[in-house]
Design brief:
The protein is mostly helical. The protein has one domain: Winged helix-like DNA-binding domain superfamily/Winged helix DNA-binding domain (Arc Repressor Mutant, subunit A, Orthogonal Bundle). Helices cover 65% and strands 8% of the residues. The protein contains six helices and three strands, in the order H-H-E-H-H-E-E-H-H. The chain has helices spanning 9-31, 38-46, 52-59, 63-75, 97-117, 123-141; strands spanning 50-51, 79-83, 91-95. Strands 1-3-2 form a three-stranded antiparallel sheet. Strand 2 and strand 3 (91-95) form a beta hairpin. Helix 1 crosses helix 5 (97-117), helix 2 crosses helix 5 (97-117) and helix 3 crosses helix 4. The longest helix is centred in the N-terminal third of the chain and has 23 residues, at 9-31. Pfam families: MarR. It comes from Ciceribacter naphthalenivorans. One of its GO terms (molecular function) is DNA-binding transcription factor activity. InterPro entries: HTH_MarR-typ, Tscrpt_reg_MarR-type_CS, WH-like_DNA-bd_sf, WH_DNA-bd_sf.
């Protein structure tokens, strides 16, 4: 018996992720970054001088995806890489002034994207959905 897609949490989660990514991408493009770069930017706004390995652990994406993302960010003038002071194989990653100047607008754009997708939700419904999302993500990490 075929399952109705609207009854599949995995299907709905994928559609929701695409919706949030599209909502952010529209706003991010106007500011000069991509939606996929936002998690890296957030980590670097919180702490600069991280290695690619540290970013991988914090953002939880594939190595190849991180390498491509960082290359695009460097090309677009958002980050600079410098040799690690004690590990010749590693590089430390710093934001450029351009990326530092984007922080307020980028976070506002992400908030606008959230607000657009939560349109019509009452405050407690949004908070409850966010709690359920965090819970499901934590369960997924255990797999």
């Amino acid at each position: 018996m075929a399952q109705n897609r609207s009854d599949s949490a995995t299907y709905l989660a994928g559609q929701l992720a695409k919706g949030f990514a599209r909502a952010l991408q529209v706003r991010a493009t106007k500011l000069g970054f991509s939606a996929g770069q936002l998690p890296v930017l957030i980590e670097l706004w919180n702490e600069e001088g991280l290695t690619q390995k540290q970013l991988l652990e914090r953002v939880d994406i594939e190595q190849a995806t991180m390498a491509n993302t960082l290359s695009r960010m460097e090309r677009d003038g958002l980050i600079k890489r410098h040799p690690h002071p004690s590990d010749r194989r590693a590089q430390v990653i710093f934001l450029t002034d351009k990326a530092r100047d984007l922080e307020h607008e980028a976070l506002a754009a992400a908030n606008e994207a959230d607000q657009a997708l939560f349109s019509g939700f009452r405050r407690f419904e949004k908070e409850l959905m966010l709690e359920y999302m965090r819970w499901a993500i934590e369960n997924a990490r255990k797999l």
